[in-house]
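step 4 of 6: structure.
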Amino acid sequence: MNDGVILITLAAAVAAGTPLVLAGLGELLAERAGVLNLGVEGMMLIGAVSAFLVAHRTSSVTAGLLAGMVAAALLASVHAFVSVTLRANQIVSGLALVILGSGVATFVGRPIEGQPLGVHLGQRDVPWLADLPVIGRVLFRQDVVVYASWVLVLIAIGYLRYTKAGLWARAVGESPATADVMGVRVAAIQYVHTIIGGLLAGASGAYLIVARVPNWSQASTTSGLGWIAVALVVFSSWRPGRLLLGAYLFGAALRANFALQAAGMHGVPAEALAMLPYLLTITVMITLSAAGGRRGRHAPAALGTAYIRSER
Amino acid sequence: MLRLERRATQPAHLVLSVPLAAITGALLLGALFLAANGFDPLLIYAEMARASFATRYGIEDSLVSATPLVYTGLAAAIAFRFRLYNVGAEGQLVVGGICSAGAALLLGQALPGGLALALALLAGLAGGVAWVLVPALARARLGTSEIITTLLLNYVAVLLARYLIFGSRSLWRDPTATNFPQGRALPPASQLPELGGTQIHAGLVLGIVCAVLVFALLRWTRAGFDARVFGDSPAAASYAGISVTMVVLLLLVVSGAVAGLAGASEVLGRAHRLDPTGLAVGFGYTGIIVAALARYHPLGVVPVAVFVGALSNAGTAVQSLPGGGVPAAISTVLQGAILIFVLASEIHVAYRVRWRRLERTAS
């Protein structure tokens, strides 16, 4: 394998990891506020199909991205209502979101199944930085969403560490009863963070359509990326910075097939290569828990539990 | 502001009224969705009801569609009832199908019919167990969340089945099909018999037997008692000297075994070959809806599976309506909506819900 192939593979890993950064960051924020939303895959599907429909009609990538975000946020607010207001089982509610999301996406996406999208989010080199050796090629010859995802990660780090709202959210995730006594509006915080999670999952699905694979297919547009994003949050110990690195690691696994083909290994069946990201995620999940309960303690203490004031 | 008062006892009528209300709510929401997409909801619901229940073939199709859902609903009920979230029934079903088709192809000619069929069913069961074993062990011994591990294995299972038929010249692939690859037909001796000249096959009967066995296991055995204590409070089970590791392992393995049998039943009873595109159509996920509607009761799963099977079947029927069909995904939309409504109404079982303004009291 020559240097050029390595650089192309690394750049591809960053691009392939970007949907995971977006969806994972959204899930991370919801989980820090105590809401477990397993519906990421469903929200991404809704985001992707809405982005296609709107970008196709308006010929605007921006309109597509925004439509995907709004549609997925609507689905997320269903989860917020069912699990925060009605205190239903968050795990089953998240699964319901996946089923509902994929059903609605398949339904409204039937007329466009297999059609190519006319518009495309192109590469935008960062002036000066793109000419840096190695790093420029890998990091600064990407599209604007990749750069935006870095800004979002930085904002999330600052938000959770230094802002009042971020600290409130963490308090709600750790101990909603305590936060309630402090005067924090638990339900409002959880709604907002669940919906932000939806906006980002929608952006992730929309990005897949406008920048990565420009045609809609229920079976292969997301193909489990939403679930890998949920796993990434655990992998990151609920820290945005680590999430970014983890997402690129998984991005590399997603693009491994191209790297291996470029390296002249043609004997490996395509199906075996496609299994790689899933098997990697499972192995990482099991290794993390085998490494000891230490990491498990990073999870927000009240994650996934409903808060009922009269029973505190 | 919503105020919740915990009910001292759960009224018995809610066991029936909650699912019925959920189905009604989902149908109303589905009607809005259909109308918003430019379809006439009344016409489509009438056609769906007619297609599933009004004709002999419709009823047969509904029961054939219900058959795998009895197993996958049962698989979800066994696990979810005890807060173990095996969402990998889809993959366990596919691997069960691969294993039972493999056993039938290897043994179907060599052994007498009954024996070959029994071994093929057992192979399906073993395939399901094999596919759940790693997540189950990781959950029981290390505490790894079973949700993500079981779910991601679904994708791996589907890729495995596709490799066997489309990606290689394996035992499972029909050597005579050159244009479009398909599964090798199973020997007739190893197929599940059809019932009285209908398309309904013995897999349905076997599924109901499984439901009764699981009910008996949970109700009348020591292991079932342990599981119920664990379900109420894992800590209490631990203090009572029950091995939580064994309970978790047992429940997940039984869940995987039943899901594996779903694959065996589909392959040996309906498809009569390994057909990846017909096997992995979401029975595993639909099983979660069946289980939730049945309130995770093993026997309740059977009638609910018939209802949900009819719903899936109706989706296919309205696809070919004259004057522009409705996408078959309407049944998935309705199923997702039903699950949301079941969850939304669940609160009424445990609590008395009052909507009122927040009173400013010193508490």
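step 5 of 6: annotate
 - Strands of chain B lie at 2-6, 351-355.
 - The mean pLDDT of chain B is 90.
step 6 of 6: archive
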